[in-house]
Amino acid sequence: MPRARFQFSLAALLLTIAAVAGVLTLMFHAPTEPACAILIAAAVMLSGLALTGLAHGRAIFHTFCLGAILPLGCLLIFIATNMAGVANWLLDDQQQKLHAGLEIWTYPIIDNPAVVRLLGVGILASIALGYLCVGFRWLIERREPPEG
């Protein structure tokens, strides 16, 4: 019986399960401010890892990164457009907020539970789309050439 070309390693599966569990814990059980800060940092780091994997990764890792880069890119756009809200959260003195011109940001994104869920869903979507691309690659490589 021929052996399948693609098999998940136990380490990759355990790492994926731990990542999903960590993101879900941050989304639903952690306080909003630290969870948002951790998920913003994770989105930025995962985007860098995905870009590095696209440029220098092996075939399977390259395919995973190709699927994961779209949701991570959308998260980076969201984070970049809302950085004034994060800066407002970091500036705790009202005079500094007024001096910096950030008085319009009365409800920064880092205090918003919906933002934590959006960041978590984006990270989970990047994991799911990465594995989906790997599955498609496996299905395409698994085809046997037609007999002629």
Give a description of the structure.
This protein is 75% helix and 0% strand. The protein has six helices and no strands. With 148 residues, it is an all-alpha fold. It has one domain.
Please specify the SSE layout and strand pairing:
Elements: H1 10-28, H2 32-56, H3 59-81, H4 83-90, H5 94-99, H6 113-142
Helix pairs in contact: 1-6, 2-3, 2-6, 3-6
Main attributes of the structure:
148 residues; mainly alpha; 6 helices; 75% helix; 0% strand
Task: Give the tally of β-strands.
Answer: 0
What's the gyration radius in Å? 20 Å
The global form is elongated
Q: Biggest β-sheet: count, sense, barrel?
A: none
Uncertain regions spanning at least 5 consecutive residues: 102-106
Strand residues, percent: under 5%
Order of helices and strands: HHHHHH
Class from secondary-structure proportions = mainly alpha
DSSP helical segment count: 6
Query: Could you report the average pLDDT, rounded to the nearest whole number?
Result: 80
Distance between the amino and carboxyl termini? 23 Å
Number of structurally distinct domains: 1
Instruction: Give the proportion of residues in helices.
Output: over 70%
